[in-house]
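Q: Got a minute? One more chain.
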Amino acid sequence: VQVVESGGGLVQAGGSLRLSCAVSGTTFSINTMGWYRQAPGKQRELVAGITRLAGRTNYADSVKGRFTISRDNGKNTMYLQMSSLKPEDTAVYYCNAQYPSGVYYSSWGQGTQVTVSS
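A: Always. Here it is, folded:
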């Protein structure tokens, strides 16, 4: 049972990045999947979520209209397309999933660093 994030990097303000999350293990019981981020000195926050079966999405107000979450169940992979990036989007981005009970699917991985320069 593991989640592995990739795709981060350094980008100028206004640029775009696409993050990927590979989910291994038994995934059929997963209810929701999500991208989270943690900036220095701040708590980890949910950026975007998606239900595994129906694909319903939700976003933090700060990223609405700029970020798009998607998933490919056949590949057990989730994505976060980030556009119009701002310096305040700078953070370590993590992915995870949750069972219907709310329990997280995996321990937190190392995440992927996203740095947006002004």
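A: The chain is about 0% helix and 50% strand.
Q: Perfect, thanks.
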